[in-house]
Amino acid sequence: MITTASLEDVTALEKLINSAYRGETSKQGWTTEANLLQGERITINELSEIIRNKENTILKFTDNNTIIGCVLLVNKGNKLYLGMLTVSPELQNSGIGKKLLQQAEKHALTLGLPKIVMTVISIREELIAWYNRHGFIDTGAREPFPLNNTDAVISQQPLEFVILEKKVS
Description:
Blueprint: E1 2-4, H1 10-21, H2 23-26, E2 37-38, H3 44-52, E3 56-63, E4 66-75, E5 80-87, H4 96-111, E6 115-121, H5 125-133, E7 137-144, E8 152-153, E9 160-167
Parallel strand pairs: 5-6
Antiparallel strand pairs: 1-3, 2-8, 3-4, 4-5, 6-9, 7-9
């Protein structure tokens, strides 16, 4: 079931997001950043701030009262920003990410927003290809990768963001 996350979900979301992006547990899935970055992906305080901001929505995918997926959606006025699409590493490739993307599109339509934009680290070619298969196209625009206080880059390749976009209808 996909519903909107609340402040009560922050601890479970923090554990899920960090386990899917960084550290040893993330290596069970194919979307890990563990070979690129070390450190926490997000903190409980950051998640709390995100949820308190009325422009943001975090959708959570639950099964048996356990959060196994989530996505951040940010109303940017003329577009919806999609970030932190997360699926528990051992459940990746089971269709949960696709369902969260579909719900993000419904959210964009509900808000009257014509497109969804997102950023992906440029060297994550397999992940970019997955988004391409789901209708996102490379806009050609690039942004520097922003490091937070806990990030430690371990990649030999420079990190930058590719901006992907999908028109919704």
